[in-house]
Amino acid sequence: xxxxxxxxxxxxxxxxxxxxxxxxxxxxxxxxxxxxxxxxxxxxxxxxxxxxxxxxxxxxxxxxxxxxxxxxxxxxxxxxxxxxxxxxxxxxxxxxxxxxxxxxxxxxxxxxxxxxxxxxxxxxxxxxxxxxxxxxxxxxxxxxxxxxxxxxxxxxxxxxxxxxxxxxxxxxxxxxxxxxxxxxxxxxxxxxxxxxxxxxxxxxxxxxxxxxxxxxxxxxxxxxxxxxxxxxxxxxxxx
Length: 239
Prior knowledge:
79% helix; elongated
């Protein structure tokens, strides 16, 4: 038993190590990191979208359930299809959700309402489907897209700032807080420098022009603050 417990603990530690390695790999792959951060940032919008959808479904479900209940009390015989779909509030909520999520063919549900209740119920149910699918879902998609774009931009900005700071420390050999064009030129072929110019969307052949542009006072040196602010300001299409 003791050996089994030790083996189980070792397996758990190995799983934790694998998770940690996966997180480290995710941080290195920018596209994967952007996707994960965008999904996480969209969780709040998702929660509000689900709450709004449930509210709409609940309001319509209360009305349809009450209508079917009155019809059941007045009619001598009620078909099972109507009771299966709208026999209780929980069944009606499930039917309405399944109708807009692809779980049920909403035309079949609509036919039951038309044949057993009234043709007006078919019009009401069709309006519910149109409102949720064409209006609400399009708005929700727009909100999700905007949230994902803002999150991706923020993630890229944070990555750029961290990368620029790390690059500046690499270029500043003497720890003076200033870098010169000679120090930059020596590192142009390094992987870090290549990633830097790729991040700010500037061709590496324009490196000297970029340095002159960031050197605001023509002193031949750039401070860390000027280097960081200039890179963020210049970021864009190649110039």
